[in-house]
Amino acid sequence: MKYLESNNVPGRVKFAEFLLDLSYDIRVDFDEAVKNRIHREQELGRVTPVWFEGDFAYCAIVNIPNIQLLDKTFCKKYTYANMLERKYDNCWFIWLELNNAGKIVNIFAEELEYKNHSIDGFSDRELRELVDFVKKQRRKSGITMPSPRSKKIYPNDICSCGSGNIKSAVDELSSNPPTFYSVSTTFAVHILQNLAKICILCTEMTNT
CA-to-CA distance for 37 and 43, rounded, in angstroms? Predict the structure, then answer.
């Protein structure tokens, strides 16, 4: 935020609003992800993008000195390819450049909309080819990604469980299931014997 305040970064107001809207935990996670990526890139000697997904998504490219860098255009293409694979219509593309002291010297941030991928010069075909290539590389490296997200279901939507009920009602039933009481056979027999005695006693009283 300090860098954004003191430097004329294109689109800095919108990007600052995005950062400020993040929860405290996600901001901490973002900071930790950047720090971890710096150490990882120093080990590998090359850039490795950071991909985050949840209710929103971002792809951060952390550039540090003395490593093999990636072209910004390719990184944007990589972000679009992830949006295609992970089913995101919008995603923040964040480009960070750091100096030897780990201080930010340049930021580029842009909220991408998948519908604009062709305007940015990327066809559906080449994005799908990149998705397939990245998947192969992940398999070789033993890296697994969670399944692409499904459509978010809100409280008044039909639940995806197949019951046909409203999600809030299903959640209520799940969190407060009906209680079924189990009774031992011995105890049940004891109750029936006593009921039988009461019935016999009532019959005798009626006859008298």
Answer: 10
Tokens found for residue 64: 């540090």
Residues paired with residue 51 on neighbouring β-strands, in sequence order: 59
| pLDDT class of 2 with cuts at 50, 70, 90 | low
Span 176-196, pLDDT tens digits? 544 444 444 444 444 455 555
CA distance 58 to 82: 10
* pTM value surpassing 0.70: no
Backbone phi, psi, residue 70, to 5°: -110, 150
What is the distance, to the nearest Å, from the Cα of residue 62 to the centroid of all Cα atoms in its chain?
A: 21
Query: Residues 62, 63, 68, 71: is their CA dihedral positive or negative?
Result: positive
Spatial separation of the C-alpha atoms in residues 95 and 77, rounded to whole Å: 13
Strands 90-98 and 57-63: parallel
- Chain centroid to CA 80: 17
| Residue entry with tokens 């809030």 | 168
